[in-house]
Amino acid sequence: MFILTRLSDLVTIQPTSFTVTTRQALEDQINARYANKVIHKVGLVICLYDILKSSDGLIGSGTGDVNINVEFRLIVFRPFKGEVITGRIANSTPNGIHVRFDFFDEVFLPKDYLFEGSVFDHNEQVWVWRTEDGDELFFDKNESVRFRVEEEEFIDNTPVDPALRDSLADADMKPPYKIIGSCYQSGLGVVSWW
């Protein structure tokens, strides 16, 4: 579910950060730049893991900023295909179930990837699995659900002019990273069922 990713970057330390150690200033700048951001084709960055090496700082002309080439590793959330994960049901729609973690909300279980015999109850706004025995098992909101990762989607969102941002519908904005999961095997689904 979590991986270490190695990156190199030019980090700028401003004179206001000269009161702390260089290492602490580098860590603060790297976390500010990468933490809680999606790197395309890499995953969701959680935080800095460690700094592997850094160059001597070069002072910028006129600004007093120090530029340092840094090689570091980041902790990244990127589950592998086939991994079984547990999350919480955020909501249900006729198209499927949205699942969330404490730190990530873009998980979707499409209706075609649910147990055979699952139907959407429009009155309750939940999916119901009708088993062969005639039992009805509900995918209730906020229940813990275990699912298998089937695929991941990375969307390279281009920047939008701030003047046009208000006119765009929320439906036009797709998440930069999304996980598609399934619940059609024994042991998957709502945890309390098993």
UniProtKB/TrEMBL annotation:
InterPro entries: NA-bd_OB-fold, RNA_pol_III_Rbc25, RNA_pol_Rpb7-like_N_sf, Rpb7-like, Rpb7-like_N. Coiled coil: none annotated. It holds the Pfam family RNA_pol_Rbc25. GO terms for molecular function: DNA-directed RNA polymerase activity. Residues 83-194 form the RNA polymerase III subunit Rpc25 domain. Keywords: DNA-directed RNA polymerase, Nucleus, Transcription. GO terms for cellular component: chromatin; RNA polymerase III complex. Residues 8-64 form the RNA polymerase Rpb7-like N-terminal domain. It comes from the Eukaryota. GO terms for biological process: termination of RNA polymerase III transcription; transcription initiation at RNA polymerase III promoter; tRNA transcription by RNA polymerase III. It is found in: Nucleus. Belongs to the eukaryotic RPB7/RPC8 RNA polymerase subunit family. DNA-dependent RNA polymerase which catalyzes the transcription of DNA into RNA using the four ribonucleoside triphosphates as substrates. This is DNA-directed RNA polymerase subunit. It comes from Arthrobotrys oligospora (strain ATCC 24927 / CBS 115.81 / DSM 1491).
